[in-house]
Fold:
Amino acid sequence: MKQRRVLLVDDDDLMRAGLRAVLSVDESIEVVGEAGDGRRAVALCRTLHPNVVLMDIRMPVLDGVAATAEIVSAEPAPRVLILTTFSDDDYVFGALRAGASGFVLKRIQPEQLIAAIHTVAEGDSLLSPSVTRMVVDRVAREGGPLDPAAGRRLLVLTPRERDVLELIGRGLSNAEIAGTLVVEESTVKTHVKRILAKLWLRDRVQAVVLAYETGLVRPGERAPGR
Structure:
């Protein structure tokens, strides 16, 4: 497995120590640095060049949302994996729009955290369908940034690609989309790649946000069978 260079960002010293201990069991993960605030994280990314930034949201000086936006604007940009709690759900949507590749809850099991780091390092995104729905529904209830004009972007998609984008927006995995549409998973992967390319989206996270902003997925809707 490829070596993963990880930067830990959290204003809690004990939390960073715990994360370092958890990640130390995987020889393919190297913690290259730590930061206690977002501004320091941005600076360290420029010098340490991590593959993955494990980012807290609520921090002094510069919060995780603003830090994520700065970090992913660099080239090449590391992947940002947000660490959050359910009480942070009003921040998570902003973090995803800022360019985070996904988010995990702070009570995640150690083996799941390690798997999450490898997932985002490989260029994929990490979305929990249940938490994603919660965030999108809450933002919508509070007058989130729906943009009907953004729907014009979807005109470049084929009808089947629109179907796939809708199911992505509802939080389905590639395997679940394949089951819903009764096609091979490899076919779904091809559709996803074409959707991202046509819409100039970085990853699956941005696809979820766009599906919501364009109204393709409405607040409160659930995927088939969920």
Q: What stands out?
A: Residues 185-198 form the longest helix (14 residues). The mean pLDDT is 83. The longest strand covers residues 29-35.
